[in-house]
Amino acid sequence: xxxxxxxxxxxxxxxxxxxxxxxxxxxxxxxxxxxxxxxxxxxxxxxxxxxxxxxxxxxxxxxxxxxxxxxxxxxxxxxxxxxxxxxx
Length: 88
Ligand SMILES: [Zn+2]
Hints:
- The chain contains 1 helix and 2 strands.
- The protein is of the alpha+beta class.
- A hairpin with a 5-residue loop joins strand 1 (about 25-30) and strand 2.
- Bound molecules: zinc ion.
């Protein structure tokens, strides 16, 4: 996730990016009419971004390669059993 993701001022309803918000502004209204608490809005956007990244990571995960060795151990082991955690 981009560390500069504008989560506090990206409308979680319509996706519009608001003007830069002073730190003392706790709530802002999007041109679309949605009123956002900046913390709640940020949480929604971060959650959405996190889910998107997770989904992409699953789809983009390369298949387990067998080019490291030319030996025949690949037939004996279950690739799933030795790779329980996805590499992020
Ligand atoms: Zn909006």
